[in-house]
């Protein structure tokens, strides 16, 4: 700890506020809030402090600390949110690309209000709905609204179409109408106030219906439309009545989709749950209005590795409701947030009304949470697949990776290696292949570690790399050498099952073919794993760019450089290497679990000739254990269905030898 930090720690007050952790270059690493700045900030630097790997990594980089004192905890929360939004510190949990989320705006402050999409929310007297994560969904909603409610979509200055309501027109005001209505009027998507076909009052009624619909108060919309339909019919305006009838039917078709899921109460609720994967989390929010599900949105949070569920939920509530135009009276959440009382008080202040935060443990609300969480898991997987199939993003990621690693060209073939074990047992190595930024499962390989005892990632990586590159058909190694090498008896299976577990590789088998040479090798691990890998590659005279990817802070280590490369959070290259590393981990852990399961359930009966699966099942079902079988007589064993005396004698003989 340097003197600068020590002096700051000594001067911290026992008051609420926020603190800013900075690195040697003055960049803000983390922004946090505290009830007591003295206690909270000092906790990071106590020797006995049980910090997460993420926080240990951050503290190692801290060169200076600033703090700001505020009056109370709610002010600290608001100030923390503003700083996070402005500086987007690396170690805070951040909502990805929150500035780009669209809203639907109803411009109540202008004459004959319009309904359109905007990219920011402001407290300016207009009504905003959102945020939405999908611009296409917003455009589809606006199109639906315009079919249901005939509001204007033009950008004309409407201040001269009708005199103001409840006040005198400004001096010199004169009504100016357009010469004729546009096509929107003739296809029944506007009631044409521009040519005085509709009064200001009639147009305002349409806008009120739009707002009610967006608020989820659909029953009121239908009731209002039904009254207008009956009024038109009584006035013998049957054409208008028929148009309103069609509009009512269209609204009811929309409502039918929302009646599938409804809550017991009639109040507004937001139901929030999330699913995490490595360093990011998908938070799903279902919006219930008047007991009906009116919509759902998902948001991706970055930097969630080693973050507790409470910390993730706190970060989301802060960032989402900071820019949300509507706060419901009840928020149902999956995990209890840190500083719940402070967040609840802040939300009440923003809503200017009561707000309850509930984390249910049973009942109907818990079932809602489970449904929302399942949707979050599905969206997280869909987003992963969507990114991988986006050729523009993957190409950009490869180009960014080329620049960051100073490669001669974008790496078209990338191989990543990971080791999985449980306290050194059932160790396996995994190799995954990405070509042009996309996974190629047919060339994935699994390696059962043979020569390493105990949990030794370094040696395991070395064994896998030797076997992979000695059997890759590279120019430096001939096929005859491969078949003569005693290490030829290795296990390597592809994602689709290519390769036979436990069998020697025969000359000319599929594993002996000319594997393509990668443009980049990624080792899952830090400096130690990278150094171990480089020893093997140099030993085999293989010159391929190789890097290590450390999980704690997504640091990329390159040979010969003490300092890691840290890609920006918004970098497509970072997203790509994370996906490759995660896929290697998934592929390896799946095989590791299979081996562990096979070993757990294996018994000595598997080694006895003439005892197949059916006889084994019958013996285990009747006796329950090998020890009980050992105590049984040959006659008792032979009496079981499917057993013979010869088989019973072999069981007794083999068990006796084992004992």
Oligomer: single chain
Please give the share of residues in helix.
40-55%
Instruction: Provide the CATH superfamily of the largest domain.
Output: UvrC, RNAse H endonuclease domain
Detail the poorly predicted runs: 473-493, 496-513
CATH class placement of the largest domain: Alpha Beta
* Tally of helical segments: 21
Architecture (CATH level 2) name of the largest domain = 2-Layer Sandwich
Q: How many strands appear in the DSSP assignment?
A: 21
Broad shape: globular
Largest sheet: 9 strands, mixed
Blueprint of the fold:
Layout: H1 3-11, E1 17-22, E2 28-34, H2 37-43, H3 53-61, E3 64-69, H4 73-87, E4 94-95, E5 103-106, E6 115-118, E7 127-129, H5 135-148, H6 183-186, H7 200-214, H8 218-234, H9 238-258, E8 269-277, E9 280-289, E10 292-302, H10 309-322, E11 330-333, H11 340-351, E12 356-358, H12 364-388, H13 391-405, E13 413-422, E14 425-435, E15 438-439, E16 445-448, H14 457-470, H15 479-484, E17 492-493, E18 520-524, H16 527-539, E19 546-550, E20 555-557, E21 565-566, H17 572-600, H18 613-623, H19 626-631, H20 634-638, H21 645-658
Parallel strand pairs: 8-11, 11-12, 13-18, 18-19
Antiparallel strand pairs: 1-2, 1-3, 4-10, 5-6, 5-7, 8-9, 9-10, 13-14, 14-15, 14-16, 16-17, 19-20, 20-21
């Amino acid at each position: 700890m340097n003197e600068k930090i020590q002096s700051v720690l000594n001067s911290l007050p026992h008051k609420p506020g926020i603190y800013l952790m900075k690195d040697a270059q003055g960049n803000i690493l983390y922004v946090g809030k505290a009830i007591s700045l003295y206690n909270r900030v000092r906790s990071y630097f106590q020797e006995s402090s049980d910090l997460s790997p993420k926080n240990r990594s951050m503290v190692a980089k801290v060169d200076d600390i600033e703090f700001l004192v505020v009056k109370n905890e709610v002010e600290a929360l608001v100030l923390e949110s503003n700083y996070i939004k402005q500086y987007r510190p690396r170690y805070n949990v951040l909502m990805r690309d929150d500035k780009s989320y669209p809203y639907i705006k109803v411009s109540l402050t202008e004459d004959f209000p319009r309904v359109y999409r905007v990219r920011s929310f402001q407290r300016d007297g207009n009504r905003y709905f959102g945020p939405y994560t999908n611009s296409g969904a917003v455009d589809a909603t606006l199109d639906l609204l315009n079919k249901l409610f005939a509001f204007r979509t033009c950008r004309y200055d409407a201040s001269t179409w009708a005199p103001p309501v409840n006040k005198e027109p400004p001096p010199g005001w004169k009504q100016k109408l357009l010469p004729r209505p546009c096509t929107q009027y003739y296809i029944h998507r506007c009631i044409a106030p521009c040519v005085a076909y509709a009064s200001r009052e009639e147009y305002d009624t349409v806008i009120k219906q739009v707002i009610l619909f967006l608020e989820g108060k659909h029953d009121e919309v239908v009731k209002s439309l039904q009254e207008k339909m009956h009024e038109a019919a009584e006035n013998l305006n049957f054409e208008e009545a028929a148009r309103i009838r069609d509009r009512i039917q269209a609204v009811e078709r929309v409502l039918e989709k929302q009646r599938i899921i409804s809550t017991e109460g009639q109040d507004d609720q937001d139901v929030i749950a999330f699913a995490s994967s490595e360093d990011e989390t998908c938070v799903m929010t279902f919006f219930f209005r008047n007991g009906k599900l009116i919509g759902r949105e998902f948001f991706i949070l970055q930097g969630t590795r080693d973050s507790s569920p409470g910390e993730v939920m706190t970060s989301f509530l802060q960032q989402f409701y900071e820019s949300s135009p509507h706060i419901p009276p009840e928020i149902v959440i999956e995990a209890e947030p840190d500083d719940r009382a402070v967040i609840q008080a802040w939300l009440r202040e923003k809503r200017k009304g009561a707000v309850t935060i509930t984390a249910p443990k049973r009942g109907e609300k818990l079932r809602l949470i489970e449904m929302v969480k399942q949707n979050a898991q599905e969206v997280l997987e869909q987003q992963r697949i969507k990114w991988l199939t986006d050729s523009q993003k993957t190409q950009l990621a490869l180009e960014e990776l080329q620049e960051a690693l100073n490669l001669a060209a974008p790496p078209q073939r990338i191989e990543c290696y990971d080791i999985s074990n449980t306290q050194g047992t059932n160790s396996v190595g995994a190799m995954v292949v990405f070509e042009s930024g996309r996974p190629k499962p047919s060339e994935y390989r699994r390696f059962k570690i043979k020569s390493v005892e105990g949990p030794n990632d370094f040696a395991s990586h070395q064994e896998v790399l030797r076997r992979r590159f000695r059997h890759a058909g590279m120019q430096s190694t001939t096929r005859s050498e491969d078949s003569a090498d005693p290490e030829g008896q290795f296990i390597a299976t592809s994602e689709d099952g290519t390769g036979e577990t436990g069998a020697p590789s025969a000359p000319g088998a599929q594993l002996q073919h000319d594997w393509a040479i990668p443009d980049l090798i990624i080792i899952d691990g830090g400096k130690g794993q990278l150094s171990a890998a480089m020893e093997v590659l140099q030993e085999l005279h293989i010159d391929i760019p190789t890097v290590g990817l450390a999980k704690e802070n997504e640091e990329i280590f390159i040979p010969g450089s003490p300092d890691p490369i840290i890609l920006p959070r918004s970098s497509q290259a970072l997203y790509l290497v994370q996906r490759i590393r995660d896929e290697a981990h998934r592929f390896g852990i799946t095989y590791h679990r299979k081996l562990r399961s096979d070993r757990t359930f294996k018994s000595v009966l598997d080694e006895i000739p003439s005892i197949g699966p059916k006889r084994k099942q019958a013996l285990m079902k009747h006796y329950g254990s090998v020890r009980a079988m050992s105590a049984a007589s040959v006659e008792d064993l032979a009496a079981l269905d499917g057993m013979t005396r010869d088989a019973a004698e072999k069981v007794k003989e083999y068990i006796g030898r084992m004992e």
